[in-house]
C-alpha cells in the first residue's frame, strides 16, 4: 500500500515519515528488516531516520 508521488517526496525531504504499514512493505520490497530502515548505526551513535 505505498502512497502517491507526493508522499514519497515528503518522505525523501523529511517532511513526514512513512506509516508502519508502509515501512513493512518497503522492507519486504528491498529485502531488509524494518530495523534497517529505521536506524543507522555509526561509531556507536544511533540516529533515527
Explain what you see:
This protein is an alpha+beta fold and 49 residues long. It has one domain. The protein contains 3 helices and 2 strands, in the order H-H-H-E-E. A two-stranded antiparallel sheet has the order 1-2. Strand 1 and strand 2 form a beta hairpin. The protein is globular and about 25 Å long. The mean pLDDT is 78.
SSE blueprint and pairings:
Layout: H1 5-12, H2 20-30, H3 34-38, E1 39-42, E2 45-48
Antiparallel strand pairs: 1-2
Distance between the termini: 20 Å
Domain count: 1
**Count of helical segments?**
3
Global Rg: 12 Å
Supply the helix-strand structural class. Answer: alpha+beta
> Using DSSP, what is the number of strands?
2
**Largest β sheet strand count, sense and barrel closure:** 2 strands, antiparallel
Amino acid at each position: 500500500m505505498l502512497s502517491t508521488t507526493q508522499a514519497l517526496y515528503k518522505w525523501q525531504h523529511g517532511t513526514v515519515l512513512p506509516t508502519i504499514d508502509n515501512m513493512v512493505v518497503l522492507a519486504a520490497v528491498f529485502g531488509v528488516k524494518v530495523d534497517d530502515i529505521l536506524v543507522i548505526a555509526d561509531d556507536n551513535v544511533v540516529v533515527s531516520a
